[in-house]
């Protein structure tokens, strides 16, 4: 059942002809009753779009309740106001993620969409170096997500929306998600500020790939020696991109050392075992897992089970076994909750 136009606005309902391509759907749950919106919200009434709230209007508890009572789970925003909606979500990110009244599914989607957009814009900008403004955005995303990512069931719930088509920015978000779950079980005594530094490092770990040609990153076949050497430069490129911003040593370590291996056979430094900081050992494990479970130009996506099997049988020595075992445990728990 839909609210009638008369019910949807107290006066002067604005009707728009049905043009689906002009609107995008959102969950009204994401609208904070205590924050003003900077966009119009429409209801879909049959084949028409009906104005529900205008810009600078509060999406009050009363309006939300009315929608709920009428079983309306989707409202619509004009595409030409998408940027306003996105900045609203960005500003209200922490509230949305931590309001337990909002369905976990809705929060997981907001988490993935908002975080992906933030990282995607960095990769699309092709900036030669990271600037303070961009870093602050990443910091905001990470600090707002910390408590959500430790919510029971969050990892499992996010997992159902994870795309297995490999893109560097979505890969960065997945690695960040897995890393924070592992940090919360392997580094329980770490303070929030230190966890945020790890999260920032995880989100930015592959930022140096901005300088790796797409023809190499997306090459369907095996890389030749020269191409492989170009790929191996991305941790150093990444670190160089961050020299002008106030990035913590922890975050820099994640960027520079995430291809080190526990047995010392990694790059760029060949450091090994506990010489590699714990967050980096965690990122390394999550990084490889996400790459194997994603469809890449040169390999199909593997199931979680076969990815872990490949990591265990074919990459012996690459990972800290304590980290790897805990990772299996966490993924197993998430699978149990979903009944997988
Ligand atoms: Fe990498
Ligand atoms: Fe990576």
Polypeptide structure, described:
The chain is mainly alpha-helical and 340 residues long. It folds into two domains: 1-81, no CATH class; 92-338, Orthogonal Bundle (Hypothetical protein af1432), CATH 1.10.3210. It has 16 helices and five strands. Helix 8 (168-186) crosses helix 16 (321-338), helix 9 runs parallel beside helix 13 (249-257) and helix 12 packs antiparallel against helix 13. The two termini are 34 Å apart. Bound molecules: fe (ii) ion (2 copies). The site of one fe (ii) ion (FE2) has 4 residues, from loops.
Give the number of helices: 16
Distance between termini?
Answer: 34 Å
Poorly predicted runs are 1-13
In oligomeric terms, what are we looking at?
A: single chain
SS-derived structural category = mainly alpha
Mean pLDDT across the residues is 91
The biggest beta sheet, please?
Answer: 3 strands, antiparallel
Count of DSSP strands? 5
Shape: globular
The CATH superfamily of the largest domain is Hypothetical protein af1432
Compute the CA-based radius of gyration. 22 Å
Biggest sheet, strands in spatial order?
1-4-3
Q: Tell me the β content.
A: 5-15%
Examine the secondary-structure arrangement and name the CATH architecture of the largest domain: Orthogonal Bundle
The tally of structural domains comes to 2
CATH topology of the largest domain: Hypothetical protein af1432
Bound heterogens, unique: fe (ii) ion
Order of helices and strands: HEEEEHEHHHHHHHHHHHHHH
CATH class of the largest domain: Mainly Alpha
Tell me the helix content.
Answer: 40-55%
